[in-house]
């Protein structure tokens, strides 16, 4: 059929996001799940795994980008932001917020455990994109400082 998406038995992904704002408050809840392997077209099976990654702001912030990897991924998160200013010296909206997360990335057949992460941040809605500056702490003493410009689109 024209325009139909072609799916592979080797690749499955699901993503859900719910967002709500009321006055100066914003709440986002999300979940990501994926499994991904390279199809072996010679024998019609799934072969050598590819890599799915977690790490970085709103993707297990206490871990470096890509620090958690595997061919399977599970991740849930909640983000709360409070708008401090509608405009200031530079006329930008300014928010403070926090992110609470649980998840992991692992290879099929290998042990995995749910890891946790919490982040505190300040966000500016600037003319060149959103700017996030914050700190995160996670399971087993993992910690991270981050500065992010714009949105992260990879999954």
Record the SSE blueprint.
Elements lengths: L10 E12 L2 E16 L4 E5 L2 E3 L13 E3 L1 E14 L7 E14 L8 E12 L2 E10 L4 E7 L6
Antiparallel strand pairs: 1-2, 2-3, 2-6, 4-5, 6-7, 7-8, 8-9, 9-10
**For the residues shown, what is the average pLDDT?**
85
The end-to-end span amounts to 27 Å
User: What's the count of strands?
Assistant: 10
Shape call: elongated
> Strand content of the residues, in percent?
over 45%
Structural class: mainly beta
Oligomer: single chain
Radius of gyration from the alpha-carbon trace, in angstroms: 18 Å
What's the gist of this structure?
The chain is mainly beta.
Structure, explained:
With 155 residues, the chain is mainly β. 0% of the residues lie in helices and 62% in strands. The protein has no helices and ten strands. The strands form two sheets. Strands 1, 2, 3, 6, 7, 8, 9 and 10 form an eight-stranded antiparallel sheet that branches. It has a two-stranded antiparallel sheet with strand order 4-5. A hairpin with an 8-residue loop joins β7 and β8. The two termini are 27 Å apart. The N terminus is likely disordered.
